[in-house]
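Incident review: delayed structure delivery

Summary: a single-chain prediction request sat in the queue longer than the usual turnaround. Root cause was a stuck worker, restarted by the on-call engineer. No data loss occurred. The affected request and its eventual output are reproduced below so the record is complete for anyone auditing the incident later.

Affected input:
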Amino acid sequence: MLKVGLTGGMASGKSVVGEMFAARGAHFIQADHIAHQLMQPGQAVYTEVVHRFGTGVVGSDGTISRPKLAEAAFGRAGGPARVQELNRIVHPAVIQRQNEWMEELGRRDPHAIAIVEAALMIEAGAADDFDRLIVVTCNEEQRVRRFAERLKIPPDPAREEVQRRMAAQLTDEEKIKQADFVIDNSGSLDATQGQVERVFEALKREA
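Output delivered after worker restart:
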């Protein structure tokens, strides 16, 4: 089985690229989806996050509010130390779960292509768990526009938030240095599809 890491800066379009690979037959999972499951009430990660960040990050339904947690970690009330604290709680549990997923998949299909998408894969030291690393990039204007559309906020506050969060990540240039493949998602979806097709063919030959 070929283990493939998929990463890139925020709002670079990693999930869209991942779905393109899945449509071609790759097995695809998102670390963010795993983290969401681990943050459900009753889970150890949920308990630790609430202990460290307070009940203010819990919504009215008893679950952790992602926007409130993001504000506590990334917002003005947070800072690099708070981001690192959150990462220390969440990343090890997510990495363990995604490795279990890949192991189970490998037992079922020795020739599978398993793709794990994670924004902070390199920063968390998880890139070494993979045979190949794909980095998705895009220009800043695209990043800001996508983030503004996702949160339904004006461009200026979106730009400020993107810059603040990107400060906690490696730059695209730094990530590219570790990449086996780079997909530039700044253009049209058709252009991205073409790049995905070429990379997928290369991955199939290896798998």
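Verification: The chain has one domain: 2-206.
Action items: add queue-age alerting; document worker restart procedure.
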